[in-house]
């Protein structure tokens, strides 16, 4: 018997298995927590400050699982095209599980770091929840994702038990190591039975199906050379083990198995192992003796451990559809049937293949449906979700979408996880998009960055209404803060004519009060945006006029002004201001307005005056024709007249326009 | 499952209505003391009074926010026979660290009603800025602001005579252009002989008129209706209408069946078999139209949600004192509803923070002799998802507590 090999095997298990030295610690602490759960109000306030998923240390879980979910969705597009996607789906399931494990490890580190104080309690609670989730997920994977030919699941179930109850194997590895050292050191036998845990460990690894480890441990007994032990070793060595890909069919294997067990039983009955009571118990277990169930039970922490253990020695080729019967049996034998907890219930339901209820139960777990949504999604992808309503219509699709919607909506409600929620809602058409439309526009616009992000997401999904709403709300916000330039920038993005009109008016108002524009950089670079509304077009053009005027480009400025006045774009109360601004141009040394243009200006003035005269309506913005206005009109009229005369003289003479300028300049 | 926070609103009389803004970050309360108060939530999620003014010369029945794309706008209606539009205006920025009160000015006063105006609601923003009011003389009025930038100009577009005294109205916020504008009106007329207390009016583009298209006679709502609310319609082919009468009812208005002369195929989808809540005073949807909150005479707020098979069930019960009803832990010395309703209690606004709601947007007025409460449809729910199991078999629904116990109970 190669001890070293057995040690090696165990070490590899140790690495693979949940190597959580704190597992025992953590399962103690939540226990206290649990006690306080039912009654303590403190718990409620702790837990609901933000639920488990929203704790910063669970961030990784949310984000990573979202990535896996998305790759699952990508995979689902290929699913319809046929072919075997089992391995890929299995990989997906493993990825989810490894995400949980990574998260668990992080939590352990956190617990280590913080020591035994307040923060710790929450972490321990998270650890406990995640650990259970992983346990259930693993079972799901075995039963529904990683489907083996022949439906013989016991080897995998044993693996599952080993993975989640690694104490016995860990102890065995420990014993084997010290035993090997002693043998190396020259002792005749390792004498490991002096360790008080020795027999407990032997039975522990035996009922988890680790025959090689059992043998290795027995070999370390001081009496290992005695006949009883030699016989036991032979029995265990010859034990037929079922391998799915071993080449033997279940029927052949069963025949071998029955023959071998009869052999063992007869040996037990002959008293071959009677010299050592503990060894005899071990062999009785191996022979499938029903009288030792109690002994096995004392080595199990949970009823499902008992189930796999008894199955291993009585019906190793059990099919998965028989499991619910055995589960029931094991539960009764374990004495737990009166005190079923949610976890037991979940495992039972899984074994019964009652997936609908499994999902219903999962929705009630403390992880905000994280588990329910991802598991449902995975099972849906695997095509294992066959749920029928009373009319025998498959409603799996509805259920899947419902769960996705709930989870996505829940995430979107969170102030920083909302973007993750978008990815989930993306995958539940058509309702997802509609919900997104509502939820996106109801996301508080706490900053410009947030607003831009929402706009981008909405834009990618062609949710034009959301973009418009966001822009308008942002524009109103800026307007409220008197940031006109910013408001205009947002209003332009919303393409809302009403709003831009109003803002343009505000700009003009500001100009007539202060004589200068706010946010000139924006106004000077409006470009084609100025076409959003009439008033804005005017504002843009008017700014252009000011720029030209400042640059000394009087001729172009003049033409622009005339075209503005004749276009009916300017608001009524602004026409007089515009006309006043023609005065310096009219009085310029150069002739700027032609006779024709002067005529146009004159007619504008006439029209304005005619409008101002019957002014009795007090609500109108323009003032009644008071003295200053009258004076202004007179000034303009005079300038116009003088300009007209100049223009007629110059245009009437033969001198071409270019020459006039040269003459004037000289 | 939830925490209750109290705000001492310091209203000097009954609080009649509480309304959240679109984002759930602001809250407006109105009271019989004729005043309206606006509350803003700060980063620590505390509610601070930001404005307080005398709005009417009578009890203010209802207060409601316009969509934020029209600015910060409130509408109120009152016993003084008027409805009013209020806008927050830019005040001087306060010095650092000081919280100044914001100024709201009355943009317009709608004085067309000759009796108490009982409800006021802004229409869907796709219709521009429209406002519907209803009054005890049975007239529904629909106003419109032709220029949304000028809130001082409102024109009375339509008057609909409902014949029965109106108590409440609701717009159907549908996202589909195929649905014409729709309003449901409820009446609190106490006499059952006056027929159905709910009427549905639709606007016809062709005749440019509002016409009554359904009275829910087949459902037989003959008791007084206290509140009514359409669920936001996110692409459903049918409309969902919640009615608060002697119990909660959820009615679907589907497209008519083939060959039927009815405008809608009306179905009662939910009505609790055991009416534990007594008379229901208010109903309110979350923004997705997936969860309904109702408040009843027993001082509890109940949350209703449909499962994936579209059957409605109560998913949670919140007691007026902030404890979870039905929970074993609630037997501590918490004041009962009656104690809260005692007249010597100060005017208090209560709101609940559900573990499942981002914004503490659950409000109940604890002081009213008749406990009325309002749950503004902003709720974005995080927990309490429920997919159709029968809760009675598990006892009370709080999911976390139970599963936590189960998950931790194993060592």
From TrEMBL, chain A:
Protein location: Nucleus, Nuclear pore complex
GO CC list: nuclear membrane; nuclear pore outer ring
Key words of the record: Membrane, mRNA transport, Nuclear pore complex, Nucleus, Protein transport, Translocation, Transport
One example GO MF annotation: structural constituent of nuclear pore
Native species: Megalurothrips usitatus (bean blossom thrips)
An individual GO BP term: mRNA export from nucleus
Xref: Pfam families: Nucleopor_Nup85
Taxonomic path: Eukaryota, Metazoa, Ecdysozoa, Arthropoda, Hexapoda
Oligomer status and interactors: Component of the nuclear pore complex (NPC).
Function: Functions as a component of the nuclear pore complex (NPC).
Family: Belongs to the nucleoporin Nup85 family.
InterPro entries per UniProt: Nucleoporin_Nup85
Name the UniProt record assigns to this protein: Nuclear pore complex protein Nup85
Automatic annotation (TrEMBL), chain B:
UniProt entry tagged with the keyword Repeat: yes
Any GO CC annotation of this UniProt entry: Seh1-associated complex
The keyword Membrane is annotated on this UniProt entry: no
WD repeat residues: 8-40, 273-305
Transmembrane segments: none
Xref: Pfam families: WD40
Domain of life: Eukaryota
Gene Ontology molecular function, alphabetical: structural molecule activity
Cellular location(s): Lysosome; Nucleus envelope
One GO BP annotation of this record: protein transport
Keywords, sorted A to Z: Cell cycle, Cell division, Lysosome, Mitosis, Nucleus, Protein transport, Repeat, Transport, WD repeat
Main location: other
PROSITE patterns the UniProt entry points to: WD_REPEATS_2 (PS50082), WD_REPEATS_REGION (PS50294)
Protein family according to the UniProt entry: Belongs to the WD repeat SEC13 family.
UniProt protein name: Nucleoporin SEH1
The organism of origin for this protein: Megalurothrips usitatus
